[in-house]
């Protein structure tokens, strides 16, 4: 998303300057400076932590920081960038050192329990909430309160190779998992591609993301009212679908060792007809420097079932204020600047907006018409990973159990029964 604030900021700055000149015509002896005016001029320093990769680039954020400081000369911002893998630990260990923190959706409940986040419920108006996708907003909630502003908006989509589907005589893009399986069998039988589907099912967070998504489409969930509900029929059915797709040779068997970049590589090399991945893959799969399938890439909503037409895992992140911040008002002002429609409109090429209204703006839709149209529908079917303080431990065990089933070392029912027992006994406390 890219640039448009300078002119507005200059006008605001000019207005402030004129106000200052008018005040200076009054002699200090007869009109002493008010205490609050003096405080406004005090220099405030904010520390903010972001991640290095994905979504908005470091350059875009640094540019926004400079623009914010120019508009608010009494507020300085020091931005720190760390890899995603180090972000959570940096915040847990040094949360008090940062005023503004970029947090992933599954961390909200954990950070609230650790007393790290400031409640910002009253800072977001009803009108603003109505214009933000509910799935993105809900990721920043805990115990009915709001603890951050959604910022990075990302979900997974179904990517497909248009040329392969055409060769196989498949006229319609699959809208259900059953249709995806049927199309994959056709592609395999006609020897168009050996393993039509590729996934990121390595024993890592990527597997938790995909299982959350697939289980959600079958009507399943892992936690209800704070209690684990892992071994439900819906979740078992979802895992059985995943396991069978490997056994039937429709899913690339190496998927159990793949992360998202591996999926992109396989799809971009023309060795898969279908792939599930984040937004970023669309541009990269259409980049001649990165892909052999340029011009053949289609994107659609994640397939669903009779219970749910689609489900996709929330990969978004939000901006939160540390409860230990000495400058919460200034920190919120900075968050408002970064999450503003102006910023998100400007940088729509890098990450899609959190604001529904921007999807009807030609400046946004023009960046990638096909993606925008699909995302408007897909964002209505966002599911969040379990929003509990013990998510980290739960996800680790989930990855192990699901991976065992995918390797056919346990039945889906056995894998989830054992996981339920372990979570109840050792984790959900």
Automatic annotation (TrEMBL):
Pfam families: SBP_bac_1. Residues 1-28 form the signal peptide. Keywords: Signal, Transport. InterPro entries: Bact_solute-bd_prot1, SBP. Coiled coil: none annotated. PANTHER family: ABC TRANSPORTER PERIPLASMIC-BINDING PROTEIN YCJN-RELATED, ARABINOSE-BINDING PROTEIN-RELATED. Belongs to the bacterial solute-binding protein 1 family. This is ABC transporter substrate-binding protein.
């Amino acid at each position: 998303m890219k640039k448009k604030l300078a002119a507005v900021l200059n006008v605001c700055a000019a207005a402030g300057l004129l106000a200052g000149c008018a005040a200076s015509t009054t002699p200090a002896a007869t009109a002493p400076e008010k205490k609050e005016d003096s405080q406004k001029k005090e220099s405030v320093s904010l520390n903010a932590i972001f991640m290095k990769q994905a979504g908005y680039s470091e350059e875009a954020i640094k540019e926004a920081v400079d623009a914010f400081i120019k508009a608010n000369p009494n507020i300085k911002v020091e931005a720190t960038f760390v890899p995603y893998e180090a972000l959570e630990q940096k915040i847990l260990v040094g949360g008090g050192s940062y005023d503004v923190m970029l947090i992933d959706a599954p961390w909200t409940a954990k950070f609230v329990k650790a007393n790290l986040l400031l409640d910002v419920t009253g800072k977001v108006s009803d009108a603003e909430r109505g214009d933000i996708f509910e799935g993105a907003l809900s990721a920043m909630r805990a115990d009915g309160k709001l603890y951050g502003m959604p910022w990075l908006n990302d979900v997974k989509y179904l990517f497909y190779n248009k040329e392969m589907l055409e060769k196989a005589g498949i006229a319609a893009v699959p809208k259900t998992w059953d249709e995806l399986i049927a199309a994959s069998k056709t592609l395999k039988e006609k020897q168009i591609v050996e393993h039509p589907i590729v996934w990121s099912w390595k024993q890592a967070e990527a597997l938790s993301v995909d299982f959350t998504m697939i289980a959600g489409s079958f009507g399943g969930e892992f936690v209800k009212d704070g209690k684990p509900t892992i071994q439900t029929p819906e979740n078992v059915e979802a895992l059985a679908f995943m396991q069978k797709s490997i056994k039937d040779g429709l899913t690339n068997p190496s998927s159990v060792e793949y992360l998202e970049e591996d999926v992109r590589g396989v799809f971009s090399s023309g060795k898969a007809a279908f792939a599930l991945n984040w937004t970023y893959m669309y541009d990269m799969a259409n980049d001649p420097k990165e892909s052999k399938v340029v011009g053949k890439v289609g994107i659609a909503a994640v397939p669903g079932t009779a219970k749910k037409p689609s489900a996709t895992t929330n990969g978004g992140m939000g901006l939160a204020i540390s409860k230990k911040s000495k400058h919460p008002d200034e920190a919120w002002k900075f968050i408002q600047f970064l999450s503003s429609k102006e910023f998100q409109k400007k940088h729509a090429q890098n990450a899609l907006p959190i604001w529904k209204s921007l999807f009807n703006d030609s400046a946004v839709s023009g960046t990638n018409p096909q993606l925008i149209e699909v995302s408007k529908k897909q964002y209505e079917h966002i599911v969040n990973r379990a929003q509990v303080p013990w998510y980290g431990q739960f996800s680790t065990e989930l990855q192990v159990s699901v991976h065992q089933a995918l390797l056919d070392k346990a039945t889906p029912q056995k894998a989830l029964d054992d996981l339920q027992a372990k979570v109840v006994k050792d984790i959900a406390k």
